[in-house]
Amino acid sequence: MSTVAVTGAEGFIGSHLVEHLVAHGHRVKAMVQYNSFSSYGWLETLDKDVLSCVEIVLGDVRDPGSVTGLVKGTEAVYHLAALIAIPYSYRAPHSYIDTNVNGTLNVLEAVRHLDIPRMVHTSTSETYGTAQTVPITEDHPINTQSPYSASKAGGDRLADAYHSSFDTQVVVLRPFNTFGPRQSMRAVIPTVIAQIAAGAREITLGDLRPTRDFLFVKDTAAAFYAVATAPAEAVVGRTFNAGTGGEISVGDLVTLVGKLMEVDLTVREDTQRLRPANSEVMRLVADASRLRAATDWAPAHSLQAGLEKTIAFFRDPANLARYKTDIYNV
User: Fold this and answer.
1) Span 108-141, pLDDT tens digits
2) Which of 49, 88, 227, 300 is most buried per CB count within 10 Å?
3) Are residues 76 and 108 in the same domain?
4) What is the biggest distance separating any 2 CA atoms in the chain, rounded to whole angstroms?
5) CA distance linking residue 239 with residue 258, whole number of Å
6) Distance separating alpha carbons of residues 67 and 111, to the nearest angstrom
7) Which alpha helices (H) appear in the chain, and where do they start and end?
8) How far is CA 129 from CA 142, 210, 238, 284, 291, in A?
9) Cβ proximity of 29 and 78 under 8 Å
């Protein structure tokens, strides 16, 4: 049974990836950001059979020693740790550089010096900015419209540079808008579903016009595994989009969720939820043909199927109780 490492393992995508890795026969060293509450985030909700194959490591990607200790003796490193909230990046941009750029540098350095066979670095579709051509291929210009996206692009460029400079065995995966159970209310789908599940029939949102390519989290986890296990000559040193190739506006998404949850909704615009005018990304839709060609990966869930699973999660009172549905979660 091989051992792999995951940074950001306690988070939304990270916890699903840990489940996926264990299901495929791996032991996982799961880095959880050190905190005084001894909280392991979403890892605490995983089945005991899964956790029996997981070693939880409290640490911080901003600390080189923490990272070296985590990745030593592993066969692959999945680097997901990041600050992700776009609105908070307007308030605290320095913290995004510390985590998303310097943290990535620390992971790359550890992987390089310990000769780890494969590293998967997590990018984001936000690095493209508003689509100039659609669907968006990996050759689309990078246009960072928020401090968050700029920090993620910085990490991407470091990954590229380490492969070119040191032959570091790194792959960049660029998921489009992942959604599903356990997602933070800093994203639109849980914001809509959780408000409805809590009893609201008038929900508050920001701009309803942007379109997104929504990818169910189980399919995102499968994409990570695909690029980590594909032959090196097919993936190393390359960047891959992960998306469905479909898009839906936020407004139409709200209508669909209301239909699936069998409620009549009204939407009230909350100005504090709006991005600065030149920072809003209006259209994102993926061309994932490069990933399909290199790994045979393809999404297994439709938008509706993924939404139904997400709705079921939020309708469970124990899950809903973890969320603050009556405030704007920055």
Assistant:
1) 999 999 999 999 999 999 999 999 999 999 999 9
2) 227
3) yes
4) 57
5) 36
6) 9
7) 12-23, 48-51, 64-71, 86-91, 93-96, 103-113, 147-166, 188-197, 217-229, 232-235, 250-260, 289-295, 303-315, 317-320
8) 7, 12, 20, 8, 21
9) no
Give the C-alpha separation, 92 to 115, whole Å. 34
In angstroms and rounded to an integer, the radius of gyration of the C-alpha atoms of the chain is 19
Q: At what angle do helices 147-166 and 103-113 cross, to 10 degrees?
A: 20
* Tokens, residue 263: 């409620």
Over the stretch 17-64, which tens digit does the pLDDT of each residue have?
Answer: 999 999 999 999 999 999 999 999 999 999 999 999 999 999 999 999
Residue type at 241? N
- pTM (predicted TM-score): 0.96
Q: What number is the average pLDDT over the span 268-275?
A: 68
CATH number of the domain residue 161 falls in = 3.40.50.720
Verify that 77 and 34 share a domain, yes or no: yes
Asked if residue 328 belongs to a domain, the reply is: no
Is pLDDT above 90 for 273?
Answer: no
Residue 8 counted as domain residue: yes
Residues 6+ apart with CB under 8 A from 231: none
Per 3-state DSSP, what percentage of the chain is helix, strand, and coil (rounded to 5)? 45, 15, 40
Residue 111 tokens read as 């992987």
Q: Taking residues 224-243, what's their average pLDDT? A: 98
What total of structural domains would you count in the chain?
Answer: 2
pLDDT computed for residue 272 by the predictor: 65
For 37, the domain range is 3-179+216-242
